[in-house]
Design a protein that fits this description.
202 residues, alpha+beta, 2 domains, four-stranded antiparallel beta sheet, 7 helices, disordered N terminus
């Protein structure tokens, strides 16, 4: 009788000790090696996924692709992402590689935008069509003419005495005027779809 009670008490003590040890092991913080193992095994690890594409043109095309894929009406037989890629190269050339010489003129600013090779071609493809977009705005008027190596863009206030608009034109300068309007993004989507937009030959 005493032996059975002793065995029962002993078993209970062993169970209690083992249970406490197991609970402590569960609650104890993981070491660096254990955490690394957990991450490798994918157990409870917090995985952070980067959101930046790493390159602006890549990101722009990626966004367009997502829009096209989400639209069941997309006609993939007309899609031309290469055409969009070439346009983004033009944008890069004009934005980062062109030379701009600005001259104050009555009512605004004249800008000689020039380059060589692909940069000159990009200037001719982009600047003249953009003057049409500038002319859609009520405050100013824009005109272009071809010059050696590129385009001269002239933007002046429609009201010669509008000192605020004149100062704005001169403050914006070439690149500030180039980003005016909200046509760029729709133009990129239309281009990728193989559609044309009025006033845009590129």
């Amino acid at each position: 009788m005493f032996k059975l009670v002793g065995v029962g008490i002993g078993a209970a003590i062993v169970s209690l000790v083992l249970g406490t040890t197991w609970t402590s092991a569960q609650q104890a913080p993981m070491t660096g090696g254990q955490m690394q193992h957990e991450q490798m095994m994918g157990h409870g690890a917090v995985q952070r996924i980067p959101t930046l594409s790493g390159q602006d043109a890549f990101g722009a095309i990626q966004e367009i692709v997502r829009i096209l894929e989400a639209d069941p009406a997309t006609d993939w037989s007309k899609v031309s992402l290469e055409r969009l890629r070439q346009h983004l190269i033009d944008m890069n050339e004009v934005t980062l590689r062109s030379e701009v010489k600005s001259t104050v003129v009555p009512g605004g600013l004249a800008m000689d935008v020039t380059g060589v090779g692909r940069t000159e071609q990009a200037i001719r493809r982009m600047v003249s069509p953009h003057s049409g977009e500038l002319n859609k705005m009520s405050e100013w008027s824009a005109s272009t003419e071809e010059i050696p190596g590129g385009i001269r863009l002239t933007v002046v206030a429609k009201t010669p005495t509008d000192a605020k608009t004149i100062a704005r034109i001169r403050g914006l300068g070439f690149i500030g005027l180039l980003v005016q309007g909200g046509h760029h993004q729709p133009h990129h989507l239309a281009m990728a779809k193989g559609e044309e937009m009025a006033g845009h030959a590129h």
